Amino acid sequence: MRNQRTIVIGFIALCLLALAVFAIRTNSRAALPALDRADPANVAAVTQGRLIYTTRCASCHGSELQGEADWPQRRANGTMPASPLNANGQAWQQSDQQLFTTIQRGGQASAPAGTISVMPAFGDRLGDTDIWAVLSYIKSTWPAALRQRQPLP
Length: 153
What we know:
- The chain has 6 helices and no strands.
- The protein is mainly α.
- It is elongated, with a radius of gyration of 22 Å.
- Helix 2 packs across helix 5 (about 130-140) and helix 4 (about 95-105) crosses helix 5 (about 130-140).
- The N and C termini lie far apart (about 75 Å).
């Protein structure tokens, strides 16, 4: 009986210790400082952006930023497939602010005349820092020469 009681007390102590370690580690994680621009050299922003991209963007734009098949051919309903965001696409031809606006307000907000975009707005689901982190990740995959040719805001 005494051995069983010792095991139970030990188990409870171990659980409390694990809970304390979890609470300390969770509270000690530094939040990503506010971003007001894309920064492909910011490792923390790129890491956060990659995580957000994987969970929010990759289902349409591809796990390797390759876009949907048949891009840039319009579908029968007039919409465009999700564009590639890697160096093979045209995202680098837009300024960071244009890309930010597209993510925040949806594809139709920045689509050329006559184009129907089905990209949803993420401004109600992602804060500005998260959007800038995603753009930091995307830009970190582009060669330096493309980043230098990208238009300024």
